[in-house]
Each structure stands twice: as C-alpha cells, then as structure tokens.
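Morning F.,

Quick status update on the modeling queue. The single chain you submitted on Monday has been processed. Sequence for confirmation:
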Amino acid sequence: MRFPPWCVDFVSIDRGTIGIRGWAIPAGRRSGPTSFSINGRPFDSTTYPIGRPDIGDLFWFADDARLSGFLCRSRILESDRDEYRFDYLDLQTGKPFYDLHAYYHTTAPDRFPLPEPFRRARVHGGSDEGAFRLEGLSTYKKFEAILQQQFGRRYTDFPAILDWGCGCSRVLRHFKPDPMQTVTGIDIDADNVAWCAANIPFGRFHHIDLMPPTPLADASFDLMIGVSVFTHLSEADQNLWLRELARIAKPSAILLMTTHGAFTICRSGQSEAAFATWVQSGFMDGGGNHDLAHQIKNSADYYRNVFHTEKYINKTGAGTSTSWRSCRASSATIRTSSSCRSSSGCGAKLGCTAPPNTSDALRCRANIGAPIPPPMPRSHDPRPDSRPRPPDRRARRSRCRCGAGDGRAVG
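Structure tokens below.
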C-alpha cells in the first residue's frame, strides 16, 4: 500500500460543532507527524492516537496499527456552507497523503427520499443511514475528481451516463443532470430498480439479467461507472461483462470501475497462504456472497467476493487477461479503482487511475446526528512498543467495516 489507509467511520453534528471519529494507519517514521483537516483547515481539536485493537488485528503487519484511532472536532463556519471534506494530512508537506482519499459529508436537505434500511443493506452490506449518505457522496465526488485529473472533464461534459449496478441510488442520486443529459441505472436487483424508478425522477432505470446481453443499444454511453460490480463476478462472468461494456460504450467513452485490491484483501481475514496465492495468480474468488439471497434465488452461486491485483488487470499477455485487453476494440477507456491503484485498459488510453479506498471507502460506519462517543481510555491501548502478530483467523471479525471496496466482502 503506497499510501497509509484511513477511514472516517463516525460523523456527528451537535450545537454548531462537527466531529469525526475513525482510524488512520500511522504513516511511518519517514513521513513524520500526521493530522487531519476539515475543508482545508485543521480541526480545532484532535486526539490521536487512540487504541484500536480491531484495526491492529486486521493490519497485523503494520507498525502501530493498534494505535490508529482518532477523534476530531471543529466549530462549523459559515463558509462551510453545509459541505465538508475530511483529509488525512502529512504535516511535513501540509497536504493530504493522497488527494483522492478524502471523505465528503453534507448537511444539505436530501433532494430525494432515502431507501429503506433493508434496501440500503443490499447495496453496501449495512443499513446505517449515515454510512449510506457518506459513502455515496464520497464516491460521487471522487469519481468526478478522477475525471478532472485524468481527462480535464466533469460529469456535465458527458451527454449519456450509465450507472452499472445502481442499486438503490447510493451514488446515482447525487447526479444533477442538465436537460440535455441522460442518466441511466441498471441492476440485477429488480426491487431496487423499481424503487429508483419511483423515487429518482431524472433517471432511466432498467432491470437486467444476471448474464449479458443487456437490452441497451450499441454505443449508447459516453461515461459508465461501476461501483462494486467487478468485485462480485467470477472470472468467467467478468470476461463476458467486459465484452458487453465494450459493446454499449460509445467510441472514446470513459469507464470508471472499482475492484477489490490489496487494501481490501488485507482487511478481509484471508489467510497468509490465500494472500500469497492471490498475489501469484492475480485473481481470487473468495466464495459466495449472500447479500442478495432474498431477491435472487441461489444468488451466491453467481454473486461472489473476488479480488484483483494491479498486475492481473494491467498485463497484456495471453490467458485470462486477454478479455481486458480485447475491450480495446471499443476505443473506450477503462479506469479501475481499487486499494492497490489498479489501472486497466479497455481502450486506447491506459495509465493512471483511482484511489486506494475510492468509493469505496465504503461501508464506513457514519452515524449522523448522535454525539460522538468518548475516546477509548488510554489504559485500554495495546502495547505501544511491540509489533502486532498475525491474529488467529478463527477469532471474531472486526467491527470496522469501512474502506474496502463496497465492504460487502469484509467485516
């Protein structure tokens, strides 16, 4: 991991004060001291580090991961205007460790109804309202930042946008299309598609089958996003969908897709042997995912928990990677976002990509409107002078659920 991972897992607004709580893996001795910012300014108060033995168990290989908790508070300023950006800073440079690792929160009224808890749970593995808001807005903002940095474009520059795997509009609800734009959402979850059609008036929504083709016409879209779709497809199904995406992409379209990479697999509780196999092969099927069990019969046979390496996606040789390479005929460009900074090609342009915990800095436990719990007493902190050892994989899963792909596969 080239950048120290972090997660905002709690947001509180109370009497003109905003607070966040979460964890941030220490950056190491080379980077020096660290801190956190809100809208580009330091928080009024920061408590760091705080003991987080659960994070120490997950990141057993990282120095001082057990001392990674933080608690920050700040007065709300008139200039904030209901919009908040949170960053993890390198104090030596005064800048974020990685600009695309930011989290975003808003206190502006919702434009559309929120889906019910059971619908939210199928999208990101938890029913928490705050998490749904935080994760959806952060993903939306980060994808547009990628478009600006890599292509000099914004969402408004694309006449036809597709959200592949729209769920119940976690990300799509944040679009603000002009009259000349179309925003389309497709998903295998018929119930969530019906909810979107009834509650998101600007969108066009279609229920699709588990396997391509879709009913969409050739060369339909200028921009396609896919949040947590490739993270749940077997290798064979992935290859079929890559060809379908190439079919419905317009020439020179841009595709932004997320994958589970190194950051996610480190937090998924896999054994060291499984991790080594994944590094060698580049692709690992971690087993069935049951989040859609009540909507799709035998869904776990289709809906998987899978992990990709950057090398697997980037390589252009023979074998399974050929399907990624073959998409180039569409003249589209795919950028994949994962914990290991994947970049892949479904087009003429290959190269840079997205953040380690893009969008998927997802499933963070943000609880809006409740006071932040007090910091864990320092007497509970783990030993600061010893390197954590690999945890017993039979132990209970950590309560932390943020920052790993869409979070469905990890606990």
